[in-house]
Write a structure and sequence with these properties.
The protein contains 23 helices and five strands. The chain is mainly alpha-helical and about 575 residues long. A five-stranded mixed sheet has the order 3-2-1-4-5, sandwiched between helices. Helices cover about 65% and strands about 5% of the residues. Among the domains are: about 1-150, Nucleotidyltransferase, domain 5; about 155-270, Orthogonal Bundle (Helix Hairpins), CATH 1.10.287; about 280-400, Nop domain (Serum Albumin, Chain A, Domain 1).
């Protein structure tokens, strides 16, 4: 049996002298306590040395991935004819067995044997001292660590995270410096702040002009594209109300302008670098949401792989955690978007920002997973998803009927609803016309109104008959001043009688008008008959009310007269007997 052992200097092949000792795994470590006892168990058969550090690094990376190198395959083919090979990695043993047809063994005894070889390695391999083995292993470990950091998918996006953080810091510093320039130079030329609104153009104008008295003789066409703005600047410089400054102040202001311009140039350079890195690492995410929004999502998630583990709902509100927890605590509506709000697709939506942000977050989750874990490096998935989202946005904003998402190619198929129309010009069903027979229902309902009025009049007569006997005993309890009350009631009754003819006259006028309307030709329709019947019923009600009122007044008169006569007789009796 042969044993393959990997060292920082190369591959070593040991031959097992006594295979019977491998059966006692628990006592195998005792055989490697000293170098003399170790030489009785194994001996060095062959050694394949690495030529340089890069060769050692490539071999180590392949061994970690359980893949034999080309030099290792040649080395084993040369020294392992018909032998069984003991190996520490089972996956590497399977690969050697498939490619080289060499039987490989991996068990607990082999692992214990590997531990013993590692303890006595410098004694078993001649020419490989401990002082040489330490620096070799340290250098190989450093090279391997740099290689893994360089090509690890979790660490490649570190540059993006740092670049977007620096870009945000530059924006803050640039705004601070630009406002300081405006405030500082505004004491000398305050009108320039309203004339030149752009911060970079303002810094360039200040650097070129210096003192405002020089503005008349200078040409600002390279800085200011509009001739009217340049004319306003020169006019304002002549009549400016600013204070005078000396040359030392102007030199310091110009140095600050140089800082602003240098920061703006570096920011543009950094943005180009970030754009190229995003198109390389996350092309599909970049095509969906843009470079800045995609970089901020990666920075907020920690890495591209961590972001790929998040669902679409988390990506939608990423960056709005405070608002989310505040809404959950106060039981209000949760936020609909976070960092993704600054994407161009959501900016195009005016009414349906919530729906578009939800759709965009789901598509972005797929794009991130494809960028982080997929093998392709193109942005076809992101472009196709963007076309679908733009189509959905047009459908939502245009309020068009049909399919909201559209077909797989991103083109919606909107079907117009024309149920009653044929393939040609005509209609399947004729247009609906007015049906006059439906008015008979209204005529039947009007015939029932006189019956109701008769019932109401009978009830009123019955109530008057019940109230009449109840008033008779009340007349007997009237005292001496009842005569005066009776006189007042007579006056009121006379007024009511005078008003009743006016009511009758009004009702007669209405009847005359209605008779005139009936005499006119072409008016006899169903609606006209209905109105006539209703007006006649109202007139009958008015006439019945007036008649009942007259009867009530007459009864009250009789009662008043009947109550007044006995009083007079009672007053006359004492005078007669006197």
């Amino acid at each position: 049996m042969l044993v393959l052992f990997e060292t920082p200097a190369g591959f070593a092949l040991f031959k097992v002298l006594n295979e019977g000792k491998l059966d006692k795994v628990e006592d195998l470590w005792k055989e490697f306590t000293t170098s003399d006892r170790a030489r009785k168990v194994v001996e060095l058969k062959a050694f394949n040395k690495f030529e340089n550090t890069s060769d050692a690094l490539s071999a180590a990376t392949l061994i970690i991935d359980s893949k034999p190198t080309k030099g290792l395959r040649k080395f084993l083919q040369k020294h392992c004819d018909g032998e069984t090979l003991a190996i520490a990695d089972s996956k590497l043993g399977n690969a050697i067995k498939e490619k080289l047809k060499i039987d490989c063994v991996h068990n607990s005894a082999v692992m214990e044997l590997m531990t013993g070889l590692r303890n006595q390695l410098s004694e078993l391999i001649s020419g490989l001292g401990t002082q040489d083995l330490g620096p070799m292993s340290l250098g190989l470990s450093h090279s391997l660590s740099r290689y893994k950091l360089k090509f690890s998918p979790e660490k490649v996006d570190t540059m993006i995270i740092q670049a977007i953080g620096l870009l945000d810091d530059l924006d803050k510093e640039l705004n601070t410096y630009a406002m300081r320039v405006r405030e500082w130079y505004g004491w000398h030329f305050p009108e320039l702040t309203k004339i030149v609104t752009d911060n970079i153009q303002y810094a360039k104008v200040v650097k070129l002009m210096g003192n405002r008295t020089h503005a008349v003789n200078l040409d600002f066409s390279e800085i200011l594209t509009d001739d009217e703005v340049e004319a306003q600047l020169k006019e304002a410089a002549v009549i400016s109300m600013g204070t005078e400054v000396n040359d030392l102040d102007l030199s310091n202001i110009r140095e600050l302008c140089d800082q602003v311009l240098a920061l703006s140039e570096y920011r543009a350079q950094l943005y180009d670098y970030l754009k190229s890195r995003m198109n390389t690492i996350a092309p599909n995410l970049t095509s969906l949401v843009g470079e800045l929004v995609g970089a901020r999502l990666i920075s907020h998630g920690g890495s591209l792989v961590n972001l790929a583990k998040q669902p679409g709902s988390t990506i939608q509100i990423l960056g709005a955690e405070k608002a989310l927890f505040r809404a959950l605590k106060t039981k209000h509506a949760t936020p609909k978007y976070g960092l993704i709000y600054h994407a161009s697709l959501i900016g195009q939506a005016s009414k349906h920002k919530g729906k578009i942000s939800r759709s965009l977050a789901s598509k972005a989750a797929l794009a991130i997973r494809y960028d982080a874990l997929g093998d392709g490096e193109d942005n076809s998935l992101g472009l196709e998803s963007r076309l679908k989202l733009e189509t959905r946005l047009r459908v939502l904003e245009g309020k068009e009927l049909g399919r909201s998402v559209g077909s797989t190619k991103g083109k919606p198929k909107i079907e117009v609803y024309e149920k009653d129309r044929k393939n040609g010009v005509g209609l399947i069903t004729p247009a609906k016309t007015y049906n006059p027979s439906a008015d008979l229902v209204l005529a039947q309902s009007t015939e029932e109104t006189p019956k109701k009025l008769d019932v109401a009049s009978k009830k009123r007569k019955h109530d008057d008959a019940e109230t009449a006997p109840s008033t008779e005993p009340a007349g007997e309890a009237i005292q001496e001043d009842g005569g005066q009350e009776g006189r007042k009631k007579k006056k009121k009754k006379s007024k009511d009688v005078e008003e009743s003819p006016t009511v009758d006259a009004k009702s007669d006028k209405k009847k005359k008008k209605k008779s005139k309307e009936t005499e006119e030709p072409g008016v006899a329709t169903a609606e006209g008959e209905k109105k006539k019947k209703e007006s006649e019923a109202q007139d009958e009600v008015v006439a019945m009310e007036t008649e009942s009122g007259k009867k009530d007044k007459r009864k009250k008169k009789k009662q008043a007269d009947g109550c007044a006569v006995p009083q007079r007789r009672r007053e006359a009796k004492p005078s007669h007997f006197a």
